[in-house]
C-alpha cells in the first residue's frame, strides 16, 4: 500500500501530469495523421526529453507510444489508410463497416477494444510484477547476453520471407554501433581517419534518419491524397459496452498482446495476426472476417493496444528493448544514468509501478479524449501528405541538431534518411538496424564481463535461466528451419 | 513483417492477412542486395587496417571482434540472399531498377533542401529560417492557396515556440541576431 501511495505521489506531480496529458492526447493526434506514426514522434521528442527527469520524459514518450494506436484506428476505419503500421489489420474489417454506413460503430468498437486490451495488459503486468521482481535478479551478464541474442534471433525469424535481409540489416546495425573510438584499448574502429567519426554514430541520429527523414522524403516524392472521411454521427461510447459482451474475443487477443509484447523482437503485428486468426476460428463468424466483422476489428485492436505495456517488461527488467520504440526509450534511461535491468526491477519497484499507473492514466485520458474529440480529429486525416513531409523535415532538424549542434550529424541523418527511403521503397525492414545497434552494444559489454568468469563453453549456460534462454534460442532456430524445409516440398507438390 | 511504410499507404485489398508476409522480389531489390553485399566485402577487406586485433589478448577483449561479427554476418546473410535471388530470378516483379532509382533521385532534391535549411539556421536564426524554409517549400510543392501559406507560418511559429521557447532545446541563436537592437537581441537569442 505504501508502495502504491509513493508511486501515486510521483504521478501527482504537475510536470508528470502535464507530460501525461500532452503525451496521451498528442499520441492520439499523431496516430490519427497517416504518415507520421509514434516512431517518428518519439524520435523527434527524444532529445527534448533528455532535459527532463526520467519519469517525466518516459511518461511523455509512453503517452505517445501507448495512445497513438487509438488514433491510428481513425484513418484505418474511415479512409482505409492505417494511421500507424500496427493498425493495418484494422482496415480489413473497419473500412468495410464504414462502407456499409457503420463508421461510428466501427470507431467505437475500436476505441472500446483498444481500451480493454490496454487495461487487461496493465492489470496482468501488475499481477505478474512480484514474479518478475523475483526472477529479474537471476539475470546476470550471461543471461542478459543470451536474452539479447534471443531478441536478435527473433527479429530475424519473425520477418518471414525477408529473414536474410533482416539478418543482414541486423548485422549492419551491429557494425554501425562499433564505429568510433572503443573503450578498452582506445583504438579507432572504421573511422577511416575522419575526426567526425571518432565519436561514433549516435543512435538517435540513425533513428531520426531511418524513421523520420526517410518518411518525410517518402511523403515529399509522393502525391497528395484526397481523403474525405465520412461524418461521425451518434454515440461513441456504445461500442465499449458491445466490446464487454465479447470476452471470448477480447481476453485471448489481449493475452496474445501481453505475451508477444514481452518477447523481444516480436511486437504488435504478430500479436494482432495471431489474435485475428484465432478470432476468425472461434467467433463462429469467420466467413465475414475481412468483410466488416466486428469481432475481427475488436481482436486486432485489443491485441495491438495490449503490447506497449508488455513491451516495457524486457526493457525494465533486463534492459533489453524488444523493438525500435523501446530502444529509443532506453536512451532516456542512459542519459539520466538510470540503468534498467534486474536491479531496477528489484530495488526501485515504485518507479516501475509509477510507469504502470501512468499507462493506466494515459489510456483513460486517450479514451476520454477520443469520445469527445473524434469528430474534430477526422479533419487531421485531410492534411496533405507532402505538406506533412515538409513539417516532418523541420521537426527532424530539431531532433538531430539539438543533440550536439552538429551539421555533420544532420548530414549523417540525411544519409540514413535516404537509406531508409530505399529500404521503405523496397519494402525491407528498418527495425533490425536499430535493434542491431542497441542489442549489439549490450551484447558486446555483457560478453566481455561474462567471459571473465567462463572457462569452458559449457560454463556459459551452466545456470538454469541461461539454460532456458539457450533452449529457447535452439527451439526458435529449429522451428524456423523446420518451417523452411516444410514449405518447400509443399510448393513442389502444388506444381 | 509489416513495414513502417505501410503507414499512410492506402490499402485496396480484401482478405488474406498472410499477404503481409509475402515479399515479391523486384529487380531494384536485387541491385540493392548486390550493392550492399559489395559494401560488406569492402568493409571486410578493411578489417585489418580499420580495427585492431592484438596478439595474446583474449577474444572477448579484442577491439575488432564486434565489428568483425557485424561484417561477417552481413557477408553470410548477403551471400545467401544472392543465392536466393538467383533461384528466384524468373520471378522478378515490377517496379524495376530505373523506376526505383528515379524515386530515390527525386528524394535527393529534398535532402539538399534539408541541408540548406540546416546550414542557414546558425546564421540567420531558427525562427526566420524555419518560416522561410516552410514558405519556400510550400511554393516548391505547388501549394498556391493562402491557407497553405498561413498553415506553413503557423506550423513554423508553433514548432519554434514549443521546442525552443518552451522546451528549451539546444538550438543556438543565429549570427544575424547580433545585429538586432540590444533589447530584442537577448530575447531573440534565447527564445527565437
Would you write up a description of this structure?
The complex is a heterodimer of chains A (495) and B (192). Chain A is mostly helical and 495 residues long. Chain A has helices at 2-11, 14-32, 38-49, 54-79, 90-99, 103-135, 141-157, 163-178, 203-221, 238-244, 247-262, 268-282, 294-318, 324-335, 342-347, 349-377, 385-404, 407-425, 431-451, 464-494, and strands spanning 180-181, 188-189. A two-stranded antiparallel sheet of chain A has the order 1-2. In chain A, strand 1 (180-181) and strand 2 (188-189) form a beta hairpin. The radius of gyration of chain A is 22 Å and the shape is globular. By secondary structure, chain B is mostly helical. Helices cover 62% and strands 0% of the residues of chain B. Chain B contains 7 helices and no strands. Chain B has helices at 27-45, 47-50, 65-87, 97-124, 126-140, 146-166, 182-191. Chain B is flat, with a radius of gyration of 25 Å. The two termini of chain B are 43 Å apart. The interface between A and B is large, with 107 and 90 residues. Chain B: InterPro entries: DUF1468. Chain B: It holds the Pfam family TctB. Chain B: Residues 31-172 form the DUF1468 domain.
Amino acid at each position: 500500500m505504501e508502495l502504491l501511495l509513493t508511486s501515486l505521489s510521483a504521478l501527482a506531480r504537475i510536470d508528470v501530469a502535464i507530460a501525461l496529458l500532452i503525451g496521451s492526447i498528442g499520441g492520439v493526434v499523431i496516430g490519427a495523421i497517416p504518415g507520421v506514426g509514434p516512431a517518428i514522434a518519439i524520435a523527434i521528442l527524444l532529445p527534448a526529453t533528455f532535459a527532463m527527469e526520467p519519469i517525466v520524459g518516459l511518461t511523455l514518450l509512453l503517452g505517445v507510444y501507448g495512445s497513438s494506436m487509438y488514433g491510428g484506428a481513425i484513418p484505418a476505419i474511415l479512409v482505409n489508410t492505417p494511421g500507424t503500421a500496427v493498425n493495418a489489420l484494422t482496415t480489413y474489417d473497419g473500412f468495410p463497416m464504414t462502407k456499409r454506413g457503420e463508421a461510428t460503430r466501427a470507431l467505437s468498437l475500436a476505441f472500446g477494444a483498444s481500451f480493454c486490451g490496454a487495461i487487461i495488459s496493465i492489470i496482468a503486468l501488475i499481477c505478474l510484477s512480484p514474479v518478475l521482481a523475483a526472477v529479474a535478479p537471476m539475470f546476470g551478464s550471461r543471461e542478459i547476453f543470451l536474452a539479447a541474442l534471443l531478441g536478435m534471433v527473433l527479429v530475424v525469424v519473425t520477418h518471414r520471407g525477408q529473414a536474410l535481409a533482416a539478418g543482414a540489416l541486423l548485422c549492419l546495425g551491429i557494425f554501425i554501433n562499433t564505429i568510433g573510438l572503443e573503450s578498452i584499448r582506445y583504438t579507432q574502429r572504421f573511422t577511416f581517419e575522419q575526426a567526425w567519426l571518432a565519436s561514433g554514430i549516435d543512435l538517435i541520429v540513425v533513428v531520426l534518419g531511418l524513421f523520420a527523414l526517410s518518411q518525410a522524403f517518402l511523403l515529399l516524392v509522393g502525391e497528395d491524397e484526397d481523403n474525405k472521411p465520412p461524418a461521425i454521427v451518434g454515440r461513441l461510447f456504445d461500442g465499449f459496452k458491445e466490446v464487454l459482451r465479447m470476452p471470448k474475443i477480447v481476453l485471448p487477443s489481449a493475452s496474445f498482446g501481453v505475451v508477444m509484447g514481452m518477447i523481444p523482437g516480436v511486437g504488435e503485428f504478430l500479436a494482432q495476426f495471431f489474435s485475428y486468426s484465432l478470432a476468425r476460428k472461434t467467433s463462429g463468424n469467420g466467413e465475414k472476417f475481412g468483410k466488416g466483422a466486428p469481432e475481427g476489428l475488436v481482436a486486432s485492436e485489443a491485441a495491438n493496444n495490449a503490447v506497449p505495456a508488455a513491451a516495457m517488461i524486457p526493457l525494465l527488467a533486463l534492459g533489453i528493448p524488444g523493438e525500435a520504440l523501446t530502444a529509443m526509450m532506453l536512451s532516456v534511461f542512459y542519459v539520466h544514468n538510470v540503468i534498467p535491468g534486474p536491479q531496477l526491477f528489484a530495488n526501485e519497484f515504485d518507479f516501475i509501478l509509477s510507469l504502470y499507473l501512468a499507462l493506466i492514466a494515459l489510456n483513460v485520458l486517450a479514451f476520454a479524449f477520443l469520445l469527445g474529440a473524434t469528430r474534430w480529429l477526422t479533419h487531421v486525416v485531410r492534411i496533405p501528405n507532402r505538406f506533412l513531409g515538409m513539417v516532418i523535415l523541420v521537426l527532424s532538424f530539431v531532433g538531430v541538431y539539438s543533440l550536439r549542434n552538429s551539421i555533420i550529424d544532420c548530414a549523417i541523418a540525411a544519409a540514413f534518411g535516404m537509406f531508409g527511403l530505399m529500404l521503405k521503397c523496397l519494402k525491407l525492414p528498418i527495425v533490425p538496424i536499430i535493434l542491431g545497434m542497441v542489442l549489439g552494444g549490450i551484447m558486446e559489454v555483457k560478453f566481455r564481463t561474462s567471459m571473465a568468469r567462463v572457462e569452458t563453453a559449457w560454463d556459459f549456460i551452466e545456470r538454469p535461466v541461461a539454460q532456458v534462454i539457450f533452449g529457447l534460442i535452439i527451439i526458435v532456430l529449429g522451428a524456423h528451419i523446420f518451417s523452411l524445409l516444410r514449405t518447400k516440398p509443399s510448393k513442389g507438390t502444388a506444381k | 513483417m509489416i513495414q513502417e511504410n505501410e503507414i499512410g499507404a492506402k490499402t485496396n485489398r480484401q482478405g488474406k492477412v498472410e499477404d503481409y508476409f509475402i515479399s515479391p522480389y523486384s529487380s531494384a531489390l536485387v541491385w540493392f542486395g548486390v550493392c550492399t553485399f559489395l559494401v560488406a566485402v569492402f568493409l571486410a577487406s578493411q578489417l585489418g587496417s580499420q580495427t585492431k586485433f592484438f596478439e595474446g589478448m583474449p577474444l572477448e577483449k579484442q577491439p575488432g571482434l564486434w565489428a568483425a561479427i557485424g561484417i561477417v554476418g552481413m557477408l553470410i546473410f548477403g551471400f545467401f540472399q544472392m543465392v536466393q535471388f538467383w533461384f528466384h530470378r524468373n520471378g522478378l516483379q515490377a517496379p524495376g531498377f530505373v523506376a526505383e532509382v528515379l524515386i530515390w533521385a527525386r528524394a535527393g532534391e529534398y535532402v539538399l533542401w534539408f541541408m540548406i535549411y540546416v546550414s542557414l539556421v546558425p546564421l540567420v536564426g531558427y525562427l526566420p529560417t524555419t518560416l522561410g524554409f516552410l514558405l519556400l517549400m510550400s511554393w516548391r510543392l505547388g501549394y498556391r492557396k493562402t491557407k497553405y501559406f498561413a498553415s506553413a507560418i503557423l506550423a513554423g511559429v508553433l514548432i519554434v515556440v514549443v521546442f525552443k521557447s518552451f522546451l528549451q532545446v539546444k538550438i543556438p541563436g543565429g549570427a544575424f541576431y547580433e545585429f538586432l537592437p540590444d533589447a530584442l537581441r537577448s530575447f531573440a537569442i534565447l527564445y527565437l
